[in-house]
Amino acid sequence: MKILRLGVGLLAAASLMTSCGNSGTKNKNGTEGALTKNAAEQVYIAPGEHDDYYAFISGGYSGNLLVYGLPSGRMFKEIPVFSQFPTSGYGYSEETKPMFNTSYGFIPWGDAHHPDISQTNGVMDGRWVFINENNTPRIARVDLTTFETAEIIEVPNSAGNHSSSFITENTEYVVAGTRFSVPVPQRDISIKDYKGEFKGALSFIGVDQETGRMEIDFQLLMPGFNYDLSHPGRDKSHGWFFFTTYNTEEANTLLEVNASQNDKDFIAAVNWKKIEEYVKNGGGKMMPAEYAHNVYDHHTHTATSTMKNEVRVIDPTEVPGAVYFLPTPKSPHGCDVSPDGEYIVGNGKLSTDLTVHSFTKMIDAIENKKFDGEAYGIPILNFDDIHAGSVKKAGLGPLHTEFDDKGNAYTTFFISSEVVKWELGTWEVKDRKPTYYSVGHLTIPGGNSREPDGKYMFAMNKITKDRYLPVGPELEHSAQLYDISGEKMELILDFPTHGEPHYAAAIKADVVKGNSLEIYDLEDNKHEYAIKSEGEARVERNGNEVHIYMSTIRSHFAPDNIEGIKVGDKVYFHVTNLEQDFDVPHGFAMIGQNNSELLIMPGQTKTTTWNPKKVGVWPFYCTDFCSALHQEMQGYIRVSPKDSDIELTWSLGDDE
Amino acid sequence: MKLASTIMVIGSALLLGLFIYPLWHVELEAPQYPRGLGMNIHLDGIVGYTKHDIRNIDGLNHYIGMKTLPKKGDMWEFTVFPLVVGGMSVLGIIIGLFGFFKRSAYKWFMAWFVLMTVLGILGMIDFNAWMTDYGTNLDPNAIMKMTDDFGNPLSYKPPLFGSKDILNFTAVSYPSLGGILLGIGMALTFISYFVGKKLSKKSN
User: Hey, what's the torsion of the CAs at A33, A37, A43, A47, to 10 degrees?
Assistant: First the structure.
């Protein structure tokens, strides 16, 4: 018996030793077990406490913008931008349908790519987030007081709006470049006539500093290359804009091979201040172009769409000194500028090296006219004259670079699936960490500004595979958060995103959170069909159109009994939420509605339509669990035959 | 002599394992392929670890301009190798059986071993030549044209034996069960010669 006890004791000791040993061994990600606990602490935000940063992560083909907190990786909101969103009724409600208007008609979906936050003096000011739609070229502005889409402008003469939407230092311009060159103006020509006939439009969209309203100031009609990504110059290079190009071969078929033949493509350096001046002096010419400009007003709670019919276009060869080509190896993808504006990084995606150009050298080469030929009348600078240095054999398939506040750069490598940290000036690789898997963009809060914040970096991956519990073939993409405050990067969190995040923009929470609205003031509600009290609730008939002026307050609709509706009518529910308390929305849904619900914030009015098709008595109800008596928040509509002479009546609470 | 003959028969018969098990395998490992991609090289063709590995390997290789992996009808080897191996195995078994009746048959054991070794070396040379061509004879219009430290075009030839880092992949190449059985079998035939020689001397 004693021996048996001793045996058990030994076993227990052995298992204790084993578990100690395990905690010191490396886990799947190659991090020390002891550090994993540390990582958990680093990303832990205690219940009720707030994150340090907002991250606005592109929802890619979801068409939307996601709001996340860092370092927790928690998702707070999906802001509908380019896609209809039945959750709130965005794109379904009468007020928001005009946001989807384009020169092609109503487009219910978009492919959102690169968010960027407004800036003042090269620092993110947290007023607005701009984001581009790639497929049907558009730029949206999201207001960071309401966290809703406030404006969408279509970009004419563009196709594949990809080198967008990046902001200059004082939000003078939102810039949108075309990835696919097209005939400008569009016309019926053979695709084989690509060379010379197709143009790439780079659009400079002016932003009103008071209202944020966008207007296309000018479009630069460049040679028919693919303008892939772009970034503004900043600080010393403020006034310039840099665009990577590929397909300088001007191939029109099998681009994966035919556009990969030139050893070097270009970064186009655009001196936009020079062009702005040219435009101010009446330069350029107005060209017929059809594009929609949609603006949402959060006082009328209504969007209006205006069709524009002309745009100013500029021939770059007519503005001397406005555009230069910087030869850059291997079909560069990302085009990133260091916080001081000196270095322009071309991420040659088919190479193992990163090419870095010097802004100072570029200016010197331009002043001394050190040109190496020209392309379509645009001077090409000599590579050796502008080359600052190369990061050699850094990895495979470099895509994007961001910067910290200590003179380091961080580049993603898609093929070798890693982030590589290197030093500006010495071009030496200092660290590398794997990503899971095949990283696209990365974001450092304050990234596209003079003052990046070198605490966190997150990598947004294209491939998820086995990172989370399996959910069938279709997966959300994974992102990884790294602590970059030390010499070596440290993976501290892995979190799923939504859609396909391309770029993300992140900002200190303190800059934004104080401006966020809690409710819409009912007194300021200027909606055409708003009612300010239950007393104004009514139903009006105009032919077969019926307008119901309805209100919601805990826990009833006014009116909640309506008779006199007929088959074949078109019924408009104009629902005003009379609540003036934070986070008390009401929902509205009608049985058999060929539409989405409405989710109405306090003080807001939204409109949905219903086409009664069947005789009977049909209920509607509140979809948002608003109060203890939410289940009682319901009503009925009596639908009579088309030829019925039942009078239109409405009521609330008058059971006799 | 019975013992030597038995060893010879078993040794030659082990070659038949190649009709069931692969000769060799090449595996590609990379971060975004947590389970790895791989192919088993059988006598009569190449088979992926999973149903779609070959297609996925070809898909990756097209970036660097490599040819697609050969199908069964693409290479004469996949027809000839089974005949050679099958023929040698049967021949070895027959020679081994002779040993039960004829004491001096052990000399034939060695002859068989030498012949099989020559054929094996020829096979390896042929296999290596194919891998060299596969890894270096690249499409001049390849999407990615990588160079080594000296500026020469990078070779994507997988190692014949062992592991090698090629770009973001680690290629690992080792004999499989069929190949191991072949090795053991040949070793046994070699041993059978000495056993046969010793026994025949003893009985003299």
Answer: 150
Q: CA–CA separation, B92 vs A479, rounded Å? A: 60
The tally of domains found in chain B comes to 1
Percent of chain A with pLDDT over 90: 89
Give first-to-last CA distance, chain B, whole Å: 12
Q: Is B122 on the interface with A (CB under 8 A)?
A: no
Tell me: the pLDDT tens digits for A194-219? 998 999 999 999 999 999 999 999 99
Interface probe, candidates A260, A330, A462, A491, chain B, greatest B C-beta count within 10 A: A260
Other CB atoms within 10 Å distance of the CB of residue A638: 18
ipTM entry: 0.80
Q: Show the tokens assigned to A637.
A: 């509509």
Q: Give domain status of residue B107, yes or no.
A: yes
Domain boundaries, chain A: 53-513, 522-651
Decide if B30 is inside a domain.
Answer: yes
CB pairs under 8 A between A and B: 34
The model's pLDDT over A223-265, given as tens digits with 9 standing for 90+, comes to 999 999 999 999 999 999 999 999 999 999 988 888 888 889 9
Amino acid identity at A552:
T
| Among B50, B168, B169, B170, the residue to mutate for chain A (most A Cβ within 10 A) | B168
Homologous superfamily in CATH for domain A522-651: Cupredoxins -  blue copper proteins (2.60.40.420)
The CATH code belonging to domain A53-513 is 2.130.10.10
| B154 reaches A (C-beta below 8 A) | no
Helical pair B2-14 and B177-203, crossing angle rounded to 10 deg: 160
Whether A246 and chain B come into contact, CB under 8 Å, resolves to: no
From chain B, pick out residues whose CB is under 8 angstroms from the CB of A415: 167-168
Q: What is the mean pLDDT of chain A?
A: 93
Dist. CA A459–CA A474, nearest whole Å: 20
